[in-house]
Amino acid sequence: MVIAVNTRFLTQKKLDSYSSFVLEIFKQIAQEQPHHHFIFIFDRKFHTDFGFAKNITPIIISPKVKDIVSFKYWYDVKLPLGLMKHKPDLLVQPTGFCSLTTSIPQLLILQDLAFKHYPNHIPKNHLAYYKYFTQKFIDKAKLIVTLSQFSKQDIESTYTVEPNKISVVYSSAKSIFKPLDYNEIEQVKDGYADGRSYFLFVGGFHPRKNLMNVLKAFSLFKKWQRSNMKLLIAGAVAVQYDDILIKLKTYKYREDIVLLDHIDETKLALITASAYCVLYPSFFEGLSVPIIEAMQCAVPIITSNNSSMPEIGGDAALYVNPDEADELAEKMQLIYKDENLRSSLIEKGLKQATTFNWNIATAKVWDAIVATNNV
């Protein structure tokens, strides 16, 4: 088979959880399927250090997408035209969007329906695009992959789609996320937290990640415990960044806050594995990879009781209502005071993490590719 994969969002050297998932899956599939040819499609210059296999041909189909109009033009005009000479047997669309004009069979990977649950977190023109076209994309796709049972049920309850058209593929955490020994942990704490223990918030500054309630909860925790614990904040800069920086200037415990700007994945793995506890009280998630990363690192996690997060954490996490900063603070206090609970969560987390496996994920995506080609 000749398999085209829309990889236009893999242009940044620093990838988010979903982009990393797509890259890991298709690099592994290409290595495991040397007799099949893969075309990675970009709309701009890409990083050659992604380590393409010999049976992967990267191509650029211009113009570079800049706005909604050029986005639609690229998908429905330039993409089909650019693929004509390559004659792919199918087209994998990991972006959640299909080309509505091509006759090439398409496998759609639809991460979640976050726009439906939190419409205020995305630009209005993007929201209008999602609302108008998502059903059309679902209809156009031969098969659909999503990343949790929650998202599968969400798609089925929102749109007209046959349940057997959707398969679930869980992500995993990279092998660099692993437990550290005592001396390694102390070295990381010395380097990032003045030698102190710390909570780690993963998610950055996007409104959906819920940093403001984390800061409120940390204040309550410090007030109740009078501990020297720090709070490290890791994640991408987003629209709230400048506003939060202003608020941090008057934040009572600002000396105990560490903003981790521009850290790479290797450093994040070390910081995660050295945390006392990871905080991930997001308002909504379809992927939840930081939960897996924390469990794999033998670090307990406090996360939200909604969307895919309980599905991923199982009985190995503490859950809170993400709207309630008091509840988050109470769980932070509980895990701080109860070492037996913390040890139990670590043990359960290591076991739960083994259920998320790159080999299983890759095999399921490959099955979906083969099925799409046979529909």
Strand content is: 5-15%
Overall pLDDT level: 93
Q: What is the CATH superfamily label of the largest domain?
A: Glycogen Phosphorylase B
Shape: globular
CATH structural fold name of the largest domain: Rossmann fold
Blueprint (SSEs and pairs):
Elements: E1 2-6, H1 17-32, E2 37-42, E3 56-60, H2 68-83, E4 90-93, E5 106-109, H3 114-117, H4 124-140, E6 143-146, H5 149-158, E7 166-168, H6 182-192, E8 198-202, H7 211-225, E9 230-234, H8 241-248, E10 257-260, H9 265-273, E11 277-280, H10 289-296, E12 301-304, H11 309-313, E13 318-320, H12 325-337, H13 339-353, H14 358-374
Parallel strand pairs: 1-2, 1-4, 2-3, 4-5, 5-6, 6-7, 8-9, 8-11, 9-10, 11-12, 12-13
Summary keywords:
375 residues, single chain, 15% strand, 7-stranded parallel β-sheet, globular, Rossmann fold, 44% helix, alpha/beta, 2 domains
Task: Summarize this entry quickly.
Helix content is 44%, strand content 15%.
Descriptive overview:
This protein is an alpha/beta fold. It has 2 domains: 2-172 and 357-374, Rossmann fold; 182-353, Rossmann fold (3-Layer(aba) Sandwich), CATH 3.40.50. The protein is 44% helix and 15% strand. The protein contains 14 helices and 13 strands. The strands form 2 sheets. A 7-stranded parallel β-sheet has the order 3-2-1-4-5-6-7, sandwiched between helices. β9, α8 and β10 (257-260) form a beta-alpha-beta unit. The mean pLDDT is 93.
